[in-house]
Amino acid sequence: MIYWVLKHIVLGPLLRLVYRPQVEGGDRVPATGSAIIASNHLAFLDSIFLPLIIKRKVTFIAKQEYFTGKGIKGFLMRMFFVGTGCIPIDRTGGRAAQAALATGLRVLHEGGLFGIYPEGTRSPDGRLYRGKTGVARLTLESGAPIVPVVMLNSDEIQPRGRLIPKIKRVRIRFGEPMTFDRYSGMTGDRFIERAITDELMYELMALSGREYVDIYAQKIKSAANRGAASGTGSSVSTSSAAGAADPREVQQPVGLVSVGKTA
Known about the structure:
This protein is an alpha/beta fold. It contains 9 helices and 9 strands. The protein has one domain: Glycerol-3-phosphate (1)-acyltransferase (3-Layer(aba) Sandwich), CATH 3.40.1130.10. The strands form 2 sheets. The chain has a 7-stranded mixed beta sheet with strand order 1-8-7-2-5-3-4, with helices on both faces.
């Protein structure tokens, strides 16, 4: 109820008036049945604009802390995330990936739309980074198609570190739904899951025109944070980060949806 009120009466009309979303290929989202909405992630506003321009309800996940705040601020934040279709998950204890996967599968098995950011976090510099294989696990286990979508300029509207967005027309582009029936029954095969994920990331690269970097974005962020903490600066070479990459990371089970402020 809150979702539809915010989308059609309170928040939606205002955002449409101010940001005048320009959407290409919106009809590629299935009108019925389950589907995975897989997007690049450039700004916090991505998680507002995507539910706004898709006619059907899209379910995202968000960290549990967004739903447990106290006072008026906590109430408003809780109402906002509930109203934008978010489901809380506990991201402590190393179980975040499993919780995200279980939530996504439940939504898909119920015939809904599940939104996910395969990179697992916002891009630190606007480029497209390596996808985590959770999106592949979801499509293999549910049989749902993946609908690739790219935010073309949300990082211009809300640059990293900027709280108040600029007033500028938001542009969003959808690709053709991707199905992977040829891999039916291969859930758990990490090479198949990596192949599916890489195929999706290539499509997102082609749709967005953004440079692709075959490194996890979180690794770049972590290295930058370590550099800042040690006083050596926050600039990190992608080549050096690639050399330090742990090959076991390809087995990470799910790319968590990053909703709200990330590291």
